[in-house]
Amino acid sequence: MGIQNGITHAFIVEFGSAKDRDYYVNNDPAHREFKDLAGKVLEKAQVIDFTDRVFEIVMG
């Protein structure tokens, strides 16, 4: 399967603030619709949340 673990596509979304991101993730109707539709065709999804110029390694 390789290092990409089967992931073939990526989408990057940039937000002006954590508040904007939280609204999009939790309340935005368009995002909710996207999740509902994508869930019907995607085998798996992975979300990576990062902050510009902040680097942490989390092992888990």
TrEMBL record:
Organism of origin: Trichoglossum hirsutum
Protein known as: Stress-response A/B barrel domain-containing protein
InterPro entries xref list: Dabb (IPR013097), Dimeric_a/b-barrel (IPR011008)
Any Pfam family: Dabb
Lineage: Eukaryota, Fungi, Dikarya, Ascomycota, Pezizomycotina
Domain Stress-response A/B barrel: residue ranges: 1-50
